[in-house]
Structure formats: structure tokens, C-alpha cells
């Protein structure tokens, strides 16, 4: 199989599995696990191909741009497809124990559609197909958030739906303005043209606003905490780890490619938004009394670090680009593991109130360990991937003379330590309930594997940075 033929397979394989999952009355669990594992194998093959080639491209149907659909992968695409591919089988393993019957069938179908859209977004070569994949990703995530929930989950999903549709419309209006000015939507053909185009600044503002809303970046995060708090653990993990990262990936591509990192004011604005998100949402996480809300606000705070890295890329180059990638990968793994572990604790206790968490270390030792390991990465402690990412981010801020960002990064790390230790304290404190609900061990192993992987990324920093290559 040629390297270029892997690209359409990475989209078609999970999409076909998703449609089968929704249509077949039985076998959802094995289908979910099998398709997710196959997707991981394709991701590994892509990384192996890119290690030698650097970039891979494919024109669907053999038609060149603008008639054909261009698919392209580089180091960043491959890293993100690989980490999403690694998370998917573990979420599938957890979901096969957490769901049954119709719920498992719907989760399998929707999650595989979600995974196919995510892969498609990472390799789409034009702005319209980026919109299509972004929309499919958002709609499948909304449906997942409503899965198996009551009135509160439905209300949160409707709020999420409103946010994703509004963000998509803003993005699409920006795309329309670019097409009107250039007659093309291909990213290579648009490279560097954005700032000089008529209406280019307005198009960029619309697309940035839409993407930041879909990413739930502060202060546009109103939809995310309720969606997380009322969704089931594997859904919360998928939303926090994967769904909100895709718009930021697209924002990075747009700014560095189409707009060539133009307008220093944009960098300053993104840095200010990111810094405010880190501080405010970390403080909100500290104040929460429900574990899932604590982890949800932590997600918004950690997204702030990604904005800081993105803002520094035009001035700091490789250090900020590496920080963005390592922070993103580490957060994907740590937050997926943390949501699954907290979900295990809540399932055993019957609720997710911190003050009511029973002493679970005796009965759920792997989940307790997962919380501790995920916390190490989120706090940015060595030897985790979070530490490597924040170290590169500090280097980028120092190199550009942005000392106020250095202070934000350090204070944010201290606040992260406060809310992580608050969660750990309640995990290991209180009285035991021997009659509490027992959990299948695979639900614990899935959480622990993800959290441990976030720490393990700290030992793979150099190989990941080599795969990335230079700043695109």
C-alpha cells in the first residue's frame, strides 16, 4: 500500500464503521474496538511513511485542485492522527463496559463518525472540506453529549449545538469572503495571500471568532462545563481530549499558512485571551465542588496554554511550535485519562460531589493512580509531557521578552497544583462504602493507560519534535 493511499483510508475506514455501528442491531462492542484498533494501525503506518517522506499528498479520484479533493499530511497532522488513534481504542474498551444495548450501539456509531471527521480535518487540504469535517465533528460530538442523559444533558447538548452552529456559520462566512477574493479554497494556493486580500482581515476575524467559540476558549466557554458535567465519562473524555483541540489546530494552520503569521496585534490578542483563560479558569477549577466541573474548567485553563503557544509561534518559531504540539498531545492523553478515572470514582460513589467521594483507593487503586499521573502532566511536573511542553513555552516567552507570560505560566502551574491536589485529597479521604457499585477492571486500566501515556510523552519529546519538522 502506498503512503498516499493511507490518507483516504483514514477517513473512510472509521466513517464506514460508524455507519455500520448505527445500522447493525448487534455487535457494536466488537465493531467499535476493531475499527478503532484498525484506525490506530493506519495512523502508525502514516507516521512510518512520513518519517521518510516528510509530507504525503493524495488527490481523491485523481483530479487535481480545484476539481478534486486534496488530502495532505505533514508531521503535525501525523502526530495528531496518531494520538487520536491511540486514545480511540481505550475509549472503545471503556465504553464497551460502560454501555450496553442501544446506548452502546449509538455510542459506537457516533464515536466512529466523530473519529473519521477528526482524521479528515487533520488532513483536509482546502477550506471547504475543513468546514465539512469540522461540522461533522461538531454534530457527532453534540449527539454524543446527549447520549444516555436526562434533561440536564439534553439542555447542555442544545447549548453545545447552538455554539457549534454559530461557530460554523462564522467560519463559513470567512471562507466565503476568501473565495470571493481569490476564486480558490486550496490552502497551498492561498498560502501567504490572506493579509493582502480585499476583505482578508474581516474573513480572518470571522474564522478566528468561530473557531475560538467551537474550541470553548475563555470567555466563549459557556457551553463546555455543563456539557462535560452531564455527559458520560467516555463522552467527556472525547470532548475534552479531542473535540476542542481540532478548531485550534485549524486556527494554527490558517494563521501560519494563509495569513503567514501576519498582524502582531493578533498575537497580542491571542496571548491576552490565553493568559486570562489560564488564570480565571484555573481559579474556577479550584472553587468547584463537583469533580467533573473541576476537570471541565481545567480543560478551558489548559486550552489557554495552547493559545499562548500559538501566539508566540510567529516570533519564537520552533520553540513555540514544539510547545503547542507537546502541550496538545499531553493534554489529550492526560485529560482523557482523568475524565475516565473521575467517572469511575463517581460511578462507585453514585455522584461526583467532591465532599461525598468515598475512600476509593482500596477498591479503585488504578483510578486513583490515574488521577495522580494525569495531575503530574497537567501541573507540568517532570518527567511528563506537560513539563516538556511548558518548558518549551517558557523558553519561547523568554526569547521574545514576554516576561508577563512567564509569570502567567508559573502562576497557572501553581493554581493547577491546587486543584489537582484538591481532587487527590478527596479521592483518598472520607469513609468507605463496601456496598458501592463494583466496576469492570478494564474501565480502570483504560484510564490508567491514558494517564501514564501523558507522563510517557515526556520521554518521547525529541522523536515527536523530529517528526514535526520545521514550522509550517
From TrEMBL:
Protein name, please?
A: Putative, Na(+) H(+) antiporter subunit D
Question: Which residues belong to the signal peptide in this entry?
Answer: none
Query: What compartments host this protein?
Result: Cell membrane; Membrane
Single GO biological process annotation from the record: ATP synthesis coupled electron transport
Spans through the membrane: 6-24, 31-53, 73-94, 106-124, 130-153, 160-181, 201-223, 235-256, 262-281, 293-313, 319-343, 364-383, 403-424, 445-465
Entries under InterPro entries matching the protein: CPA3_Na-H_Antiporter_D, NADH_UbQ_OxRdtase, ND/Mrp_TM
The record describes its membrane topology as: Multi-pass membrane protein
Q: Which family does it belong to?
A: Belongs to the CPA3 antiporters (TC 2.A.63) subunit D family.
Which PANTHER family does the record match to this protein?
Answer: NA(+)_H(+) ANTIPORTER SUBUNIT D1 (PTHR42703:SF1), NADH DEHYDROGENASE (PTHR42703)
